[in-house]
UniProtKB/TrEMBL annotation:
Keyword check for Cell wall biogenesis/degradation: no
Lineage: Bacteria, Bacillati, Actinomycetota, Actinomycetes, Micrococcales
InterPro entries attached to this UniProt entry: MMPL_dom (IPR004869), Mycobact_MmpL (IPR050545), SSD (IPR000731)
Species for this entry: Bogoriella caseilytica
Descriptive protein name: RND superfamily putative drug exporter
Membrane topology type: Multi-pass membrane protein
A Pfam family this chain is assigned to: MMPL
Residues passing through the membrane, by range: 183-203, 210-230, 236-255, 276-298, 304-334, 388-409, 549-568, 580-597, 617-640, 661-681, 693-718
Record's subcellular location: Cell membrane
GO cellular component entries: plasma membrane
UniProt main location, coarse: membrane
PANTHER family (alphabetical): MEMBRANE PROTEIN MJ1562-RELATED (PTHR33406), MEMBRANE PROTEIN YDFJ (PTHR33406:SF13)
Low complexity: bias regions: 352-365
């Protein structure tokens, strides 16, 4: 991975103008797509397949006048007045007639005590139902605006002291927007960046790239409305996530770049190395984020799946920008990114070099040498921190776990529900209508349920509906059943049920379950099937389905990321420890959200409009997003520890040095995350507010308590055991080289063995399933059109070496460079340049060699040969070519290959003199390596060899 990212970073820095123009073009294209394809946002809540949603769809077909979107107009007279008096009735009747004439309005209940509007017991208030002829998602903004204008006109026409308010399900949602607090979060981020990086240019780049990334992501979300409904919280979630991770990823890469510059590196090379090392951590962190967000689809709820996809797109764009645009902008910045001390040292060194002609060539001033060798010094604060938490690691672990457990305990009382108008801002008209309804009619009138009944087989439709309504009315928690009627075709009946509790009350949920529990009895007694639907019932179904999805979601997401982390860190313990730490952070986040939104702690300070249950999809979104972010910090921190451990082999010292190298960046990124997320709390919408607070708390706890306190203590306590992994598992897992160990090796070997087809130095292959050397050390140098023979009494040993040269088998130690590429990390590219023929299994060796020679000649004749052209042909087990005619034909074809610039490697198992003679017949001038002379090896069965041969 680091090798690929190194090339991407180097190309991006070298082609900076092209990269910048490319991303500007992507932004413009996303804007054009949003403008031409966007169809607006849709806040309708639905879950296909649930009872409430299915019943509503059937009702839309059989009883459309009851299935359309609805609103309510509540009118309240002053104290002592009667709402049915002429002064009020005349104004209400006029408003009713005007509203009925509005586009999309189907009917309005008149002010009639017997068959019309609902009148309160004290006759002070009336509630008129407004039925629309469209679903909620199809209600136009012009209709909503016209209804509110009629509300204003009615209030002016009523006697002084009267109130008129418009509410109902079409006004239950409020579109979120970006306010001052969100902007304040960005300002705080800039301050943190300035303190961390010490440069205005360096601090401005992460903000610039993050803004570009969220711009592309949000515009794509609006363009996606052409494909299906997207709710108003989705672009805000993409904005929040994209901004947070965009700043963090850019900061991580820029900090690593400045570290490289502080050691004296050149700008382009430094950008490439920073992209290779920090970019590997960014890519891994981004993948975990994407997996976690896409895991939201486990809930099988369309709007939640869309939110997860939008968030994952924002994260993916942030990763792409970090590894392409950030190196390009780094290159534009040039020397301005270099730390002042290193810049001053370079200037002094240059002055000394030009002013001291007598000085020996290549010498440097002590100050310049110090700047290039030492780099940035570790902070005393973070050094003291890590030493304090690792001095008594068991005590640190116990204190952290106990403290987080206390913080998480309130989450045991966490209640979930879908918020309605009661959770809107206190000044919102729908919130006012909700409260007036609750005050004058009871909270149950804000949570009216609809029970549908299929009565197509009934002989007495009206009687059956009334009988069923009577049974429902006897249930606990029912205030009244105001309506029980069949449709005009007498095939479907509708029963309205007013519960005693509000939309989020536990008794309302229990009543829905009790009505559904009557289904078998009603089917037996009346031959009628019933279903419970309506806005309240559907939101209850949403909450239940989300709760059921949390366990499979957690298992799938955590399981996938555990496997990925095991590949990255080559450890079993580190991924398990990381996941357990994540659970602690989630518990703390849930606990604080419960304290604020249910218990009221700091509710006024955080502008919480109403205490009560937390939005039902908060836990699954918070778990998904926080898992990805927690793994970000785990990767940023532990990858540096792993890097130090690989370099030194000292597990305990690696914890300290890895912490020193990454703690400053982790602190900065976490502070930025908290600032960005918290900025969405006071001004956030009812959906986003608890999610934003949970993420802010979760990130703070995870970064500062779990990752920077608990993790060093656990790693110190475990020592070398923290990096334990079964040998067999380690062999079969792919290697990603997040720490850049193999990249450093590639760079170090850049000038070694130039102009050769293959070269080996101290090459050793261990015995299968063992760390004991089997073959080697082997050394050779093969010219670009040369020939090399490899012989041994062990057929397996010969095959192992030639497969290693062909990139099919990874050596265990030593250096191996084939066609200019260092193995084993460039094995995939080498396999495209090296052809392997097994003389035992090939049907016609001369014919195969003739085909390869023709291919090589065609490539040689091209003016610009392909980078992946054939460079080496490996012929293994050439000892089986016993027929003299066949050997001569093979020798001729090998000579043709070499004439076309292709090198040849021959595997020759067998006794010494015989193998040498066969090599001279096939390639007289070939060099010969006798593995028996350099290896004291057994002749193992070789499971690794079998795997390599199969591949």
């Amino acid at each position: 991975m680091s090798s690929v990212l190194y090339r991407i970073g180097r190309w991006s820095a070298s082609s900076r103008r092209l990269v910048l123009l490319g991303w500007v073009a992507v932004l413009a294209l996303a804007g054009a797509m949003a403008g031409f394809l966007g169809e607006g946002l849709d806040d309708e809540v639905s879950i296909p397949g649930t009872e409430g949603q299915d019943a509503m769809e059937r009702l839309n077909a059989t009883f459309p006048e009851m299935a359309g979107a609805s609103a309510s107009l509540i009118v309240v007279a002053p104290d002592g007045a009667d709402i049915t008096d002429a002064d009020f009735a005349e104004a209400i009747d006029t408003a009713t007639e005007t509203i009925e004439d509005l586009e999309q309005v189907d009917a309005v209940t008149p002010l009639d005590e017997d068959e019309g509007a609902l009148i309160s017991d004290d006759s002070r208030a009336a509630m008129l139902s407004i039925t629309l002829d469209s679903d909620q998602s199809d209600v136009m903004d012009s209709t909503l605006e016209a209804l509110l204008n009629e509300r204003d006109a009615l209030e002016q026409a009523l006697p002084e002291g009267s109130e008129a308010e418009m509410g109902g399900e079409i006004f239950n949602m409020e579109f979120p927007g970006v306010g001052l607090m969100e902007v304040a979060g960005v300002v705080i981020s800039f301050v943190v960046l300035l303190i961390t990086l010490g440069s205005v240019v360096a601090a401005g780049l992460p903000l610039l790239t993050a803004l570009l990334g969220v711009g592309v992501a949000v515009l794509l979300v609006f363009a996606a409305t052409a494909l299906g409904p997207v709710n108003s919280t989705t672009p805000m979630l993409a904005l929040m996530l994209g901004m947070a991770v965009g700043i963090d990823y850019a900061l991580l890469l820029i900090a690593r770049h400045r570290e490289e510059l502080g050691k004296g590196g050149e700008v382009i090379e430094s950008a490439a190395r920073a992209t290779a090392t920090a970019g590997s951590a960014i890519a891994f962190a981004g993948v975990t984020n994407v997996i976690a967000l896409l895991g939201l689809s486990f809930a099988n709820i369309p709007f939640l799946t869309i939110m997860g996809v939008a968030g994952s797109v924002a994260v993916a764009i942030a990763v792409a920008i970090a590894v392409t645009l950030v190196p390009a902008l780094i290159a534009f910045s040039g020397e301005r990114m270099r730390p002042r001390a290193a810049r001053r040292a370079r200037a002094e060194a240059a002055a000394a070099e030009t002013g001291a002609a007598a000085a020996p060539s290549g010498t440097e001033t002590p100050r310049a040498e110090e700047a290039q060798s030492s780099g940035p010094s570790p902070s005393r604060f973070f050094t003291g921190w890590v030493k304090a938490v690792t001095r008594f690691p068991a005590l640190t672990i116990a204190v952290v776990v106990a403290g987080i457990a206390v913080l998480a305990f309130p989450a045991t009382d966490l209640r979930l529900a879908m918020p309605g108008a009661g959770f809107l801002d206190e000044e919102h008209h729908a919130r006012h209508a909700y409260e007036l309804t609750e005050e004058h009619f009871g909270e149950g009138y804000n949570a009216v349920l609809m029970v549908t009944a299929t009565i197509v087989t009934s002989d007495d439709p009206l009687g059956v509906i009334e009988d069923i309504a009577g049974e429902i009315e006897e249930l606990d928690g029912v205030v009244e059943v105001p309506l029980a009627v069949p449709n005009p075709s007498a095939d479907t009946g509708i029963i309205q049920v007013v519960p005693s509790g509000g939309p989020e009350a536990l008794e309302t949920e229990e009543l829905v379950r009790d009505i559904r529990a009557l289904r078998p009895q009603i089917a037996e007694d009346y031959g009628v099937d019933i279903a419970v639907t309506g806005f309240t019932a559907i939101t209850i179904d949403v909450s239940e389905q989300l709760g059921d999805a949390m366990l499979p979601f957690g298992i799938a997401v955590v399981g996938l990321c555990l496997i990925l982390m095991m590949m990255i860190f080559r450890s079993v313990v580190v991924p398990i420890k990381a996941s357990l730490g994540y659970l602690l952070s989630v518990g703390a986040a849930f606990g604080v959200v419960t304290l604020v939104f249910q218990d009221g702690w700091a509710a006024d300070l955080l502008d919480v409009p109403r205490l009560g249950p937390v939005i039902s999809f908060m836990p699954i979104i918070l778990m998904g997003v926080l898992f990805g972010l927690a793994m970000d910090y785990e990767c940023f921190l532990v990858a540096r520890m792993r890097e130090e451990y690989v370099r030194t082999g000292d597990a305990r010292q690696a914890v300290v040095r890895g912490f020193q190298g990454s703690a400053k960046v982790v602190t900065a990124t976490a502070t930025i995350m908290v600032a960005v997320f918290f900025g969405f709390v006071p001004g956030g919408d009812i959906y986003l507010k608890p999610i934003a607070l949970g993420l802010a708390v979760g990130v703070a706890v995870d970064a500062f308590i779990v990752r920077m306190t608990l993790v060093p203590a656990v790693m110190t306590l475990l020592g070398r055991n923290a990096w334990w992994i079964p040998r067999r598992l380690d062999r079969i897992m792919p290697f990603f080289d997040v720490e850049g160990e193999r990249l450093e090796k590639q760079i170090a070997l850049t000038d070694w063995a130039p102009q050769t087809a293959a070269a080996a130095r101290e090459l050793v292959i261990n015995a299968p399933n063992s760390d004991d050397p089997w073959i080697g050390p082997v050394e050779f140098s093969l010219a670009e059109n040369g020939a090399l023979g490899i012989k041994s009494r062990s057929r397996a040993a010969v095959t192992a070496v030639v497969l290693a040269v062909a990139g099919r088998l990874a050596p265990d130690t030593g250096d191996l460079k084939v066609t200019g590429l260092v193995l084993p990390d460039r094995s995939a590219a080498v396999r495209h340049r090296v052809a392997v023929i097994d003389a035992v299994n090939a049907p016609d060796v001369p014919a195969e060699l003739r085909r390869l020679a023709a291919q090589a000649r065609r490539t040689q004749q091209r003016s610009t040969p392909r980078p992946g052209r054939l460079r080496i042909v490996v012929l293994d087990r050439a000892d089986v070519l016993t027929d003299p005619t066949a050997r001569r034909a093979v020798a001729d074809r090998l000579a043709e290959l070499r004439a076309a610039g292709v090198a040849v490697v021959l595997g020759l198992p067998g006794a010494g003199a015989d193998a040498t003679r066969r090599l001279q017949e096939l390639a007289p001038d070939a060099a010969l390596i006798d593995l028996d002379a350099v290896s004291a090896h057994p002749d193992p069965a070789g499971s690794r060899l079998q795997e390599a041969t199969a591949s």
